[in-house]
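Recall the central idea of this unit: under ordinary conditions, the amino acid sequence of a chain determines the structure it adopts. In this exercise we apply that idea directly, starting from the sequence alone.
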Amino acid sequence: MKNKGKFILFEGISGSGKTTQAQIFSKILKASYFKEPPHKGDFSFVRELVTKKKLDSLTEFFLFLSQRRYIYLEIERVLKKGKNVILERSFPSSYVYQFDLGKLKKLISFEEFSLIDKRARNFLDPDKIFIFDVNPKLALKRIKLGKHKYEKLKVLEMARKSYLNYAKKFSWIVINANKDLSQVTEEVLKFL
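Accordingly, the structure predicted from this sequence is:
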């Protein structure tokens, strides 16, 4: 892929500002914007099922893998054209919410979990992964939608800790998302 575009992933707990920053940077970088799971169109049913139904973590993981495979194949096509891609949420969320918080680690090893996920992604890795780190209490104030099961203070606190652990383990870029919008944007720009 000689003319491959940049592939950047924005992650973090709900209310961290990742959606806003993903939209800002999709304009700055003239990038195609993707979101996992999508709010509308193909595979939008995944979001509805996962946030509204009481599903076990393995079921959630397989639902995410099916939509992830679909999205990553599309991302590959866009990158091959030399265009940039911004993706909001992906495999780090599965690490946090299904493997750690959902306790999938009691069923399979991280190596198995990670390999299944990598196969779903066609072994495509982002060029940069940004974790937007925010105080969970501030995140709750920012959340405008009705709170679903992942938007409770205790869950946000555990998820934040898990994201930071993975960021350290895999050298992902952590952005202080407690700051105001323009400061957060400026901090991300330093790494691009």
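The two ends are 20 Å apart (CA to CA).
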